[in-house]
Write a structure and sequence with these properties.
Layout (H helix, E strand, L loop, with lengths): L1 E4 L11 H8 L12 E2 L5 E9 L8 E3 L3 E9 L1 E7 L4 E3 L10 E5 L4 E6 L2 E5 L4 E6 L7 E10 L2
Antiparallel strand pairs: 1-10, 2-3, 3-12, 4-8, 5-10, 5-12, 6-9, 6-11, 7-8
C-alpha cells in the first residue's frame, strides 16, 4: 500500500505511471458521469466516481487478484481502511469479471485519511475498505480509481 501526495507519484515504481500522469495532466476533461474511461485498453482504465462517504460498517473490505487500485481523491476527504489478510473472513466468492473478493474483518484495522490531491495504491491481495467517513458525518468526494493490470 502506498499513500502520498499526487505530486510525488513519480517517486514510486507504479506500473503505467507515465500514462496515469498524462491522463491527470488535464483533470478538467474527466466526465464524472461515466462509469469507465479507457486509457490503455484493459491494461489501464479509470473509474470516476462522486459519492458521500459512509460509516465503515456499511461497506466490506475488498481485494483484487489482477488489478492494482490507484485511488486519487480529486476533492473532499475520506478514510480508507486496510487490514492484513489473516484478519479477514470471506463474504462471498471471487468475482473474476469484477476482479473482486469481499471480506469482513475481525481486528487490527488501520485507518488512512486521504485528502484532495492525495492518492493510495492497493496492490493485488491487499485488503482495503474505501469510501469511509472520518467521523464528521458524510462528506462529498470526487475520486478517480485507476485500475492497473499487474498480473
Amino acid at each position: 500500500m502506498i499513500h502520498d501526495a499526487i505530486t510525488h507519484i513519480s517517486r514510486y515504481d507504479i506500473p503505467m505511471v507515465t500514462e496515469i500522469r498524462r491522463f491527470m495532466s488535464d483533470p478538467g476533461r474527466v466526465d464524472f458521469d461515466v462509469k469507465e474511461i479507457g486509457i490503455a485498453g484493459r491494461d489501464l482504465f479509470v473509474r470516476p466516481s462522486t459519492y458521500l462517504t459512509r460509516l465503515p460498517g456499511e461497506g466490506l473490505f475488498e481485494t483484487h487478484d489482477v488489478y492494482a487500485d490507484l485511488q486519487y481523491v480529486v476533492s473532499g476527504v475520506e478514510r480508507m481502511q486496510l487490514v492484513a489478510r489473516e484478519y479477514l473472513t470471506p463474504a462471498g466468492a471471487y468475482d473474476p469479471v469484477r476482479d473482486m473478493s469481499f471480506f469482513t474483518a475481525k481486528g487490527d484495522v488501520t485507518d488512512v485519511i486521504v485528502r484532495a490531491g492525495e492518492f493510495t495504491v492497493f496492490f493485488p491481495g491487499e485488503a482495503h475498505r474505501p469510501m469511509c467517513q472520518r467521523g464528521l458525518g458524510p462528506e462529498a468526494v470526487k475520486k478517480l480509481v485507476f485500475k492497473i493490470r499487474v498480473k
